[in-house]
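Section 5.1 Outputs to date
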Amino acid sequence: MVTVTRERALKEAKKAEKAIKAGKYLGPLHGIPYGGKDLLATKGIPASWGAAPFKDQVFDHDATVVKKLGKAGSVLGAKLAMIELAGGMGYRQPNASFTGPCSTPWSLGHWAGGSSSGSGSAVAAGLVPFTIGSETWGSILSPAGNCGVAGLRPTYGRVSRHGAMALSWTLDKLGPLCLTADDCGLVLEAMAGYDKKDQTTTRKLYKYEAETREFRFGVLKGTTNNAQEAVTENFNESLKELENIGTVEEMEYPEYPYEAITRAILNAEAASAFDEFTEAGTARGLTAPEDHYGPYARTIILAKDYLKALRLRAVMAKKADKAMEPYDAIVAPGRTRVAPPIDMEFRKISSGTSKDIMGAIGNGAGLPSISVPNGFNEEGLPTSIQFMGRAYDENLIISAAVAYQGGTQWHTKHPKAFTP
């Protein structure tokens, strides 16, 4: 945690208690405490963005998601640790935050994942029932996988980003990390909706409704190529469970430069978002040495390459949607590796692993995905499986994950060190 919001939490808790006693129950989140990633504006409370140069930054308003959760009766208990500037400076190791590296509760010697590290760790440790994280590329699914919890990346535009630090305007998304997939649906319903302060938000209404049906699963071809042995074994076991709740068949996306497109957009927009920060030389105050020069590298993206990537993204989205049309969800490991050691450069460890096609397509096309735990390796570190759907199909993928968790027990396991 970065900041325990004690005074605000007590005030909101007393308000919730009074309302509930008076019979004015607002719903399943009423009186439930939560934590928010420290890139969310919270009135009068620091929002550090995980970066030393902004550690005393305070806003005079709440982010829209904070307001919405407040209206649902939730209690803000803490602002949570994150990678500095949400990883937008190109960090390569866990120690890229002024608060230090964040551990997964399953092993204090291993990383919680980035950039919503504190959001995943806090839920796994039982400090709060749910948290809010953000994802531009992997920043919800990564900590969810490393920490053995459920993490939902909603469709782009489903949740307002007003009051959240901007890294990439056309890729950033806010979503919940919870103990179960079902909880993710409940929290998403409270967060979702149009916001006039964020014109990218959709006017499509969202209400969480879990569906009971036979699901059609597509398994991404080669998805376990170069994955760790435990990841592959646990994923194959998961597929056996999915056969009990639906059909499972192999699929693949047509050949296309998915990763190059999404990365070009991310790098160009990150360079623009932090233009003044970079020009002022403020990056020298960041924690990770590589982040001192990372922002400068992003400024070399040419405007013509960015515009080309934007045009190609439209084609990418159509190709992906057509390939996914026969299925309710595309399944793959949430991560191809378990949490890396907290004192090592994770990019060196992960070199040579399979390409992140799911991450590139999912974030580039703004598609929803949910990651849930599906086992452990010999060291007791969690592995995960993700269910990715077509745009606005959150209920389908959540329902599939709920059905999977109905036949497994991985989500009921908790780190011994944090079990009362």
